[in-house]
Amino acid sequence: MPEMTPDWSLRRLVHLVAIYAGALLFGLVAHWLRFPLPWMIGAMVFASSVRMLDRPLPVPGQTRQIGQVLVATSVGLSFTPEAVGAMVSLLIPMVGAAILTIGLGFVVAAFLMRVTRADIITAVLASIPMGPVESATLAVKHKVRPGPVVFAQTLRIMLLVLLIPPAIVALDGTVKDPVAALSRMEWTASGAMLLALAGVAGAYAARAVRLANPFFVGSLGGAALAAAFSLPITAYPYPVLVLAQVFLGVWLGAVFDRDLVRHARGFIPGAVMASLLLIALCTCMGMALTWITGEKWQVMMLSTAPGSVTEMALTAKILEDGLAVVTAFHVVRIFIILPFASSIIDVTARLAQRWGLQSQD
């Protein structure tokens, strides 16, 4: 650890200001090009470009947590009693979609093993949507290299953010200004502060009981309870959501560095194809659920996207349709996959040993 001298602190502050200034500039370009989620996409492209040039990007880990709290509480506003009541009838499709996503992950893992000659544990950890951090922890536990796993999980999230929101907004055809739905929310200072407090309280409560993804799920729960009890909460001013998008975009882009790519070099083409295959399979599932549930295709496509709950929820907010349903589908999947991820991999490892499916690296 470097010594915390005033000069060192000042250099670090200047470095952080430069990072976020560059992220905002890229976000401004994406905004000018009328991308949905422009500040997140722009920040992600900027951060990943800097890291691919092998330049340092020491962003505080707390920025991701702040971004998650801000977005989750903004989404939680939609969990009114009426919205929650409407979602009860979709509980079975939600659980079914989560379980089917795990099954599709195994299908994609089989494809990934075939094209990259990866071992079965690496392939499964890379294919089932469970997040880079969680999958890397399980990779270390099962003595496989975490680099390819983190690369595949991060790549899938980046592809989802880059492909799904622009595609759905373009195909929907009704959204003339993707930013308008986020920027015209009514707010008051006291209502926004109460919303943030409800989210922070929910996040720390979720962390205390060791819930998966506490800073999103807990904040969402806190805001949803505040909305359900009709507390005087309001949306945030738009610059706060811009800040949240930038924080999340920089954090996500910073994960995707040259060292990660170097360690996954022979794995990259297969990981790209596997990510696109999983997205395509989940898209087909979403279209099937459109027919089964009668919900709009846009809502079901966002609901069944393999990951990126924060970004899919923001896209639903842009479309001004199905925000509570989209979020509920993702939260149900999180609570089904993450608590059982370790058991899934343990069973997979035992079956692989029994069937003689050893590492092919």
How would you briefly describe this protein structure?
The protein is an all-alpha fold.
Report on this model:
The chain contains 17 helices and no strands. By secondary structure, it is an all-alpha fold. It starts with 5 loop residues before the first helix and ends in a 6-residue tail after the last helix. Helices cover 76% and strands 0% of the residues. The longest helix has 33 residues, at 323-355. The radius of gyration is 20 Å and the shape is globular.
SSE blueprint and pairings:
Elements (H helix, E strand, L loop, with lengths): L5 H27 L5 H15 L9 H15 L4 H7 L3 H26 L3 H8 L4 H10 L4 H27 L7 H4 L5 H20 L5 H15 L9 H18 L2 H6 L4 H26 L3 H8 L4 H11 L3 H33 L6
Helix pairs in contact: 1-2, 1-12, 2-12, 3-10, 3-11, 3-12, 3-16, 5-6, 5-14, 5-17, 6-7, 6-8, 6-17, 7-8, 8-14, 8-16, 10-11, 14-15, 15-16, 15-17, 16-17
**Structural class of the secondary elements?**
mainly alpha
% residues in beta strands: under 5%
What's the rounded overall pLDDT mean? 84
Helix proportion: over 70%
Tally of DSSP β-strands: 0
The rough form would be described as globular
Distinct helical segment count: 17
**Radius of gyration from the alpha-carbon trace, in angstroms:** 20 Å
**H/E element order:** HHHHHHHHHHHHHHHHH
CA(first)-CA(last) distance: 36 Å
Which consecutive residue ranges, at least 5 long each, have pLDDT under 50? Answer: none
State the major sheet: none
